[in-house]
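User: Can you predict the 3D structure for this chain?
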Amino acid sequence: MRGSEPKILILGGTAEAAALASAFAELPVKAITSLAGRTSNPARLTGTVRIGGFGGPAGLANYIRVEKIHLVIDATHPYAARISQNAVIATEATKTPLVRLERPAWEKQPDDNWIDISGEAEAANAILPHARVFLALGRQHIAPFAKRADVHFVMRMIDPPEAALPPDCELILARPGDFAAEKQFLEKRKIGLIVSRNSGGTISYAKIEAARALGLPVMMISRPPVAARNIVASPEEAITFARTSLGF
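Assistant: Here is the predicted structure, written as structure tokens:
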């Protein structure tokens, strides 16, 4: 690639970040996708990929300076609040444009039975004894539930967790299924409650649709506030922002 092409840092780990990397490969820019490295076998991405943390906002700011990054696109998970905040601090320190790609949250439908919850700790305390719960959270978010020996948890994730598991639990290493598969999953295990984050998107929405069909309550953990000033809702909007900011 030509050295004069603007460099874009994509803070990734989502389907939207992968779509951006593919799109930028066809444009006169150099995109670098950064992954936290929490998944042992991440999906293959187009273009340059770096794996690992930056060492806080100062480390990210140093990376931006050394690599001469022209634009940062924060396309991390809606709940990755720490890296998003670090991106704000680092781009302000380096005077680098930043745009947050925040996929739209799921909207509650008339037949949904959602219980709004502020975080995992509150959810762990609110679950009734002897409940059968599908804990639809990432492996790094299960620690608050480990103390609940009086609850049967079903957990499904891509990689096994490093934290201690609840005493009464079933761990399934798998990805989400479609509506029929999720409905069968919940019925087979006699799930009475789901604990979920409002991740948005289509990949994991089938469990919400299945819960609606079965009349199951869902403890929906609220999203953290967005710290960035510039916010878009799709890869297409992020590309438009990049074109406007960088003039390509």
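The longest strand covers residues 30-35. The chain is about 30% helix and 25% strand.
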